[in-house]
Amino acid sequence: MANSIWTIEEFTCPGCGMNYSATREEHTEPHAGRFKCSICSGVVHAWSGKHHFFSWETVKTKPPVFGRRWAGVD
User: Fold this and answer.
1) Is 72 within the bounds of a domain?
2) Residue 65 domain-assigned?
3) Which domain holds residue 19?
4) Cα–Cα distance between 58 and 61 in angstroms, integer?
5) pTM as predicted
6) 37: DSSP letter
7) What is the rounded distance in angstroms from the CA atom of residue 34 to the CA atom of residue 5?
8) Of 45, 49, 14, 12, whose CA–CA distance to 29 is shortest?
9) What is the pLDDT of residues 12-69, one digit of tens each?
C-alpha cells in the first residue's frame, strides 16, 4: 500500500538528451523498474527500493531567444 508522498522529478536521457519528468511515489514494499527513452530507447532511469516512478512525460521547454530583429531597425 502506498502512502501519500509524491514528488515530481526530472531526468535527462544519457543517449539523446531528451528531458522527462515522472512522479515518484513512496511505498512500504520494494519496487523495481526502468524507463526507456521514446526517441533512442536508452534507459533514462532505473530504480529499486521503496519507491516507484510513474506518469512519465516529456518536458516541454521553449527554445532560448538569443536576439530579436525589430522591424525598421538594422
Assistant:
1) no
2) no
3) 2-58
4) 9
5) 0.73
6) -
7) 20
8) 49
9) 999 999 999 999 999 889 989 999 999 999 999 999 999 999 999 999 876 666 666 6
